[in-house]
Design goal:
The protein is an alpha+beta fold. It has helices spanning 9-22, 30-45, 51-58, and strands spanning 62-64, 69-71, 84-89, 92-98.
Length: 105
């Protein structure tokens, strides 16, 4: 999770809001769950209520999620295939960045 907003400015706000509401740090896959729920909510808000309508809508959705851009390819997989590298320091898990740019501290 990018709690510093290093790769995505929305991530820092999400992490800050999460901690304020729940009193704990964001778990490593919280952004993925939030972004998945947001995509489904957008589908329903657009009037899609059947599985077929929701799937069709999701094939066209495109927005900046709190974890990464949310857009799906023709196979239904996330188009953004970023891999993020983390470093464990004591009890903290620090994001080093995208695999293409991460540097060990």
């Amino acid at each position: 999770m990018d709690t510093d907003g290093k790769t995505n400015a929305n991530a820092k706000k999400f992490a800050d809001d999460y901690k304020a509401k729940f009193g704990s740090e964001v778990a490593i896959y919280s952004t993925e769950g939030y972004d998945a729920a947001t995509a489904f909510i957008k589908a329903v808000e657009a009037g899609n209520t059947t599985p077929e309508e929701i799937n069709k809508f999701l094939s066209t959705v495109s927005f900046d999620g709190v974890g990464k851009p949310i857009k799906f390819d023709e196979n239904g997989e996330l188009a953004a295939q970023d891999i993020f590298i983390y470093e464990v320091q004591g009890k903290a898990i620090k994001l080093l960045g995208n695999a293409n740019e991460a540097k060990v501290s």
